[in-house]
Amino acid sequence: MKKNEKKKEEVTEKVHTVTQGLKDLYRSKLLPLEEFYRFHDFHTPSLEDADFDNKPMILVVGQYSTGKTTFIQYLLEEDFPGSRVGPEPTTDSFIAVMHGEMESVIPGNALMVDPNKPFRKLNPFGNSFLNR
Where does the Dynamin-type G domain lie (predicted)? Predict the structure, then answer.
């Protein structure tokens, strides 16, 4: 095994260990407190595996035609499915740009029910938000 591959494996194992450690701590220490004080009844739902396992996200919001799509295209160094740039409002919907093996468009309501994606908590906004 090459030195770089071994180092990458070690880093992956440490990340997995830290992630698993955070999950275990949450479930054993914090979640019981949240349930005892009924935190989920008046604030956010409890964390799920997807909340720990997925990569961090950045939210880009702003007025129409201020360069949000252009900014994302610049960062990606390419267009992404559903992106259009123009002087009039063109992307007036919720879009999640994620890394994957192939380009595809997944409807918002499908992302919302996928337990491996961190979008399940968007359910209170309803299908009209996710289907736009």
Answer: 52-132
CA distance 68 to 61: 7
Output Rg (C-alpha) for the chain, integer angstroms: 19
What's 27's DSSP letter? I
The model's pTM is 0.55
Q: Which two tokens stand for residue 52?
A: 């720990």
Residue bearing tokens 């029910």: 113
Q: Is residue 48 within 8 Å of residue 115, measured between CB atoms?
A: yes
**What are the CB-based long-range contacts (under 8 Å, 24+) for 97-100?**
97/72, 99/55
Four-way CATH pick for 48-132: 3.40.50.300, 3.40.50.1100, 1.20.120.550, 3.90.650.10: 3.40.50.300
Tens digits of per-residue pLDDT, 12-57?
666 668 888 888 899 999 999 999 999 988 888 888 888 888 877 8
* Whole-number Å distance between alpha carbons of 99 and 84: 19
